[in-house]
Amino acid sequence: MFIQTESTPNPATLKFLPGLTVLEMGTADFPNADTAEKSPLASRIFAVEGVSGVFFGTDFVTVTKAEAIDWDHAKPAILGAIMEHFQSGAPVMEGEGGGTGGHAEHDGEDAEIVGQIKELLDTRVRPAVAQDGGDITFHGFDRGVVYLHMQGACAGCPSSTLTLKMGIENLLRHYIPEVLEVRPVAV
């Protein structure tokens, strides 16, 4: 088994490509070790000293390290943990076994606008963000303000504010005049 790695715009995050399906659909975000109980793979990666976050896409694993840890020390152990997991035959996720679509539900008078926002996120934004090892999901819409949740490499990325404001906000405002602003939200 050969696992490729790619850098991301976030220097604290690396993208690992095992060459296998990680999740059949959706994504799974583990912002700390306490959230990893339903994933044997995430638990195994968190056992590596200095790992502070794990994120799964359909064909990649994104790992975020603590600032004090050097990639030269953490990367080999993370590669080993991923390889051992896939060779063990254990599931990536226990229970329902998959990730989530990610978007929050929204009913009410703005349902049509929210549908357009989610459609643009799914077709224009999320595929590009996944290339960088992350995901951005809809969290809410209130009086012209779109609230988005940033996961994986996007969470804590130095360029995420620029991406959010200059990229996503401009895109949504162009296609949906009711959108006035885009803001990140911590979940």
Name a few traits of the molecule:
single chain, alpha+beta, five-stranded antiparallel β-sheet
Which structural class matches the secondary elements? alpha+beta
By DSSP (H or I, 4+ residues per run), the number of helices equals 4
The backbone outline, from C-alpha atoms, is: elongated
Order of strands in the sheet with most strands: 1-2-5-4-3
Taking the sheet with the most strands, its summary is: 5 strands, antiparallel
* Assembly annotation: single chain
* Average of per-residue pLDDT values: 87
Calculate the terminal CA-CA distance, rounded to whole Å: 35 Å
How helical, in percent, are the residues?
25-40%
Q: Gyration radius, to the nearest Å?
A: 17 Å
User: What's the helix-strand series?
Assistant: EEEHEEHHEEHE
Unreliable residue stretches: none
Number of strands: 8
What amount of the residues lies in strands?
15-25%
